[in-house]
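A note on notation is needed here, since sequence and fold are reported together in a single record. The reader may check this reading against the record printed directly beneath this paragraph.
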Amino acid sequence: MDCTGINHVTVLVRDKQRSEKFYVETLGLEPVRLGSSLWIRVGQSFVHVTDSSGEPPVNSFQHLCLEVRGLPAAMKVLAAKGVELFGLDSRLARFPLDPDNLGQNQVFLSDPDGNLIELNDAANSFLHPAVPSSSSTCDL
């Protein structure tokens, strides 16, 4: 098998219209409608937003991580929209983050159903560790 990337991940929600408003209007992502299915474009990949596959996870580190260029500016925009931005400690306890702190490499927020979303600065070296190029595909 020659894997070339992640096509999509699915996010479980209770109210698809409310979630679409959040992902599109609050986060500024592009919606893609395929029949009654809602997909959100993130670069070359997608988030499939569905209310037909169970309940959103609670008290879990299960999350979606979005790579963002200019995270400090994005934090200020989100804070101005009333989005709670937070960090997580080793016990997954939340602590508030200051959107004016320009030293942040990552920040967390939740969608309207409590799905955990991580925003990671594109310049963060954690996202781009030095690995041999042959490791970029999953050849099984």
